[in-house]
Amino acid sequence: MSGFGKGCHLHLIDGSAFIFRAYHALPPLTRKSDGLPVGAVSGFVNMLQRYVEGNTGPDAATHVAVIFDHSGASFRNAIYDQYKAHRPPAPEDLKPQFPLTREATRAFNIACHEIEGYEADDIIATLSCRAREAGGRVTIVSSDKDLMQLVGDGVEMLDPMKNKRIDREGVEEKFGVGPERVVDVQALAGDSVDNVPGAPGIGIKTAALLINEYGDLETLLDRAEEIKQPKRRQTLIEFREQIEISKKLVQLDCEMELDFTIEELEIRDPEPEKLLGFLAEMEFRTITKRIADKLGVDAPTVADVIPDGPDAAPADAPETLPFNPDDYECVSDVESLKGWIAQAYERGYVAFDTETTSLNEMQAELVGVSLCIEAGKACYVPIGHRASATDDLFGGNARAEGQLDLNEALGLLKPMLEDESILKIGQNMKYDSKVLSRYGIMLGPIDDTMLMSYALFAGIHNHGMDTLAERYLDHTPIPIKSLLGSGKSMITFDRVPVADAVKYAAEDADITLRLWERFKPQLHQQKVTTVYETLERPLVPVLERMEMRGVKVDRDTLSRMSNAFAQKMAQLEDEIQKAAGRDFNVGSPKQLGEVLFDDLSLPGGKKGKNGAYSTGADILEDLATEHELPRLVLDWRQLSKLKSTYTDALQNHIDPETGRVHTSYMQTGANTGRLSSTDPNLQNIPVRSEEGRRIREAFVAEPGNVIVSLDYSQIELRILAHVAGIDTLKQAFRDGQDIHALTASEMFDVPLEEMTSDIRRQAKAINFGVIYGISGFGLARNLRIPRAEAQGFIDRYFERFPGIRAYMDETVKFAKDNGYVQTLFGRKIHTPEINAKGPTAGFAKRAAINAPIQGTAADIIRRAMVRMEDAIKGLPVKMLLQVHDELIFEVEEGAEDKLIEKARAAMEGAADPAVKLDVKLSVDAGVGSNWAQAH
DNA sequence: CTAATCACG
DNA sequence: GACGTACGTGATTAGC
Length: 935
Description:
six-stranded mixed sheet; 22 strands; DNA-binding; DNA repair; DNA-directed DNA polymerase activity; DNA-dir_DNA_pol_A_palm_dom
């Protein structure tokens, strides 16, 4: 059957209502294997199943869809900003369940739709009107009274709870007027739940009375003077505008533009494998069994879908389809592009990739995009290729033939790329998203295979496309070098011949889609869905905005410093040459070693396999007592570092367009969950030395703004106190004590009031050492004390805090047993070398001890960042930078106190409600016109 | 392209 | 008993 018309019956299910009802009706169930909250999903599935079972007889549907509210504001908020303003935000344990309910709907093979800027009710209204015009019947499965305005002429409602059909009479019973006047009554009566104001003092009863008397709302308002009751008359006149706004709020939009047709909603039988696979993954044993019985197949057990290790093949491993670059299509006309976009709509998802002229997203120009619908079925859309490999005198800079116009292609792609119901799948989507945003396209929603790999395999391998393709698809992608070359003669992608670009670019999208198919089910199987959904995916847009904002860096300040450093260095170089007795390159460790140990024969030997002398800072520091030269070299090196890495290099990173420095955060750079920062690295701007710290003076606020820095105080030690359960430490943090002094006092039996800075310094080193997986050797070197003495400190520390040793032993044992360790939020860090022999074992052990602590801290600040934009909404603030335990903001002068209050609350409460810490988190704040002052 | 060095949390 | 050791990053430079 195709088409929709007479004899057809469309059922529209209010999905969001289902979710909330399920959530509130059921206890907070969690998935047994990983604690993912699934209560609402389970209730939702039950309701869907009951619906499907009941869908027989004369009222059975021929077409069906589940409609969801889209997250975020609707067009009604533009009309009235207080609309639904009193609604509390969705509970934390419900949020991760929203996407799962969409998945559940698809698992039932039922269409599901939502559209940004609209509420489910509007979509339902539009569909109802269209179905009615086509001569079909409609049943709206919902008990929401707002939908009653749609009833009549073949449209009915079905209250799923009471299993009661509501027709025209039902509506009159409820509102006292017919469906066509329901909005008028609602406009007058208002709605406290949705915060629709209405007319004060008028309820449904009075409203219906008035409407029935005057016919409709407009007439009533026009003739309000005639109303006999003085109070009512005055209210209607006084609140006329508010009533009219209310009507706009309750009036559903019947003429929305939809990105799908009614025909597409035709009912389909569930595919048992898909449905049961989903249910088993959710670990709904009873429902799985019941539905399997109904479908007449064997129920898969949880074990079927959850294999043992990350490398175990998924139960439904896609057959390996070979990669054939000749199958990829080059899209060069509008019809063809429309065809691919239509296919994306049909699927609900599409793998997507962009090709550009630069790795710098702030400057990259779009050259083409590729799409992949299913494994092996991909295309490339060239839009910015040039005619020749070089810019010659014969028009080589001209556009290549056979390409769509950039604006035309983007115009066609934009609605799909921004459509909330179409999932865009990519590898490192932050890059593509940033590039597209400069073309006015706000990409979303997205899935990212790189982030999935990170959630699944951190510690096992890196997460680049080449690694993933080779490891999971047994395929080596076309190297980009083969197209662009390397070194000096490297070309940009716009100069790659289109035919070559098609093979390369479409393959990337193809690989991405295949990786996604493989990784998506594994997230559940490996119990990292929550990590991916709460710590990875939502961070992408946050980082994207921080990167695009950049931070203002004052070139003159840096330039002046560079000059000063250069002068001082030249001076030092002279002194160094004099002290050495000959000319040599101070920057060469090799030459320096020869001068120190051969020419001057200072003590200190060769090291390493290459036979070179070691001339690290610690060695020079020791040598400084013997000779003046090492000290001079140390000073020179400090200046050299500051100049080359900071005052010089940073200037080159100032974007000519924005005058700001735009770093790039890598979400998958550090195994522990930390971010890393590149191009430039803004997470290692000097602070420890006085000279270095002055570089931060160049990081400034715009005129009328200030820089605010908020940093977690001792977050890793607090986490250690929590995970190891050390009461003394917990108490000390509760009392706001100096934690290093307390450690010193405990260890060396020195009362706090007699504490010396030296004893405290040693204790501080021990505290840090503990976090790093302390060893006698390491502590000895750090404190420059004999190894035996350092070992004595450590022994004493463990004696005093036995819980810490127990925690360390348990962590190492867990790693040995499982091959990974975990943060408090469920992030897994794999430790493949933990069972190695030899020195490697020591490394792996210490890394395993450190990872849960460092990783939990990283998770906490990630949570804070994800929530931050909401927490500081309405304030004239920009979040600019993250430095592991610190967030940097630029804020309009005067708003800094409010910002500190809001941001601090978000940071200190970032672990809630997922994890209840025994130790409270504490955040220090600083304000200034530059970063040096704010820190 | 790698090792050494040093900047940060 | 000896291994040789603090945890996690990125940028720059020298020198093959």
